[in-house]
Amino acid sequence: METFTRKSIGVETAMAMVTKAMAKASETGILISVTILDESGVIKAFGRMDGAPLISVDASRKKAVTAVGLGMPSGQPWFDFIKDDPILREGVGNFSDFMLLGGGFPIVSEGQMVGAIGISGGHYRQDEVCAQAALELVK
User: Fold this and answer.
1) Residue pair 78/116 in contact by the 8 Å Cβ criterion
2) Can you spell out the DSSP letters for the chain?
3) Phi, psi at residue 64, to the nearest 5°?
4) C-beta of residue 55 within 8 angstroms of C-beta of residue 31
5) Nearest CA to 73 among 108, 42, 49, 40?
6) Staple partner for 130: which of 21, 75, 88, 138, CB 3.0–4.6 Å?
């Protein structure tokens, strides 16, 4: 039988990333939800700041699922990939758990995707800043 081994983000790192993203959100003056997924798309850690919009819970998860599923950020790079392809651009709305908004990023360690982070609650550019702050922990 053939098998393979994958690396996955650890729970302590995932929790630290949630904390770091929330600290950056506090600094920025926004309230967010943060979802960390493992490499298979299963939730590893989650946090919602007191008062964060309820919609941010599902949006943060969808951004992370998009990032782990595509292996690329959920925002601009993905939009640039589909913007000139009408069939693909119109079709992506039919994907379940897909979100074409910035704030979702793969988490990469030693060149291998080990999970993804999704953040929602502010403007997508603010969400991206909070995600980048959390990603500094794994560089």
Assistant:
1) no
2) ----------HHHHHHHHHHHHHHHHHHT---EEEEEETTS-EEEEEE-TT--THHHHHHHHHHHHHHHHTS-SSHHHHHHHTT-HHHHHHGGGSTT---SS-EEEEEETTEEEEEEEEESS-HHHHHHHHHHHHGGG-
3) -65, -40
4) no
5) 108
6) 21
pLDDT in tens, 91-100: 887 888 888 8
Class of CATH domain 11-138 = alpha beta
- Give the Cα separation of 66 and 15 in Å (integer): 20
**For residues 52 and 33, is the Cβ–Cβ distance under 8 A?**
yes
Q: Round the CA-based radius of gyration of the chain to a whole number and report it.
A: 15
| Per-domain residue ranges of the chain | 11-138
Per-residue pLDDT tens for 24-38? 999 999 999 999 999
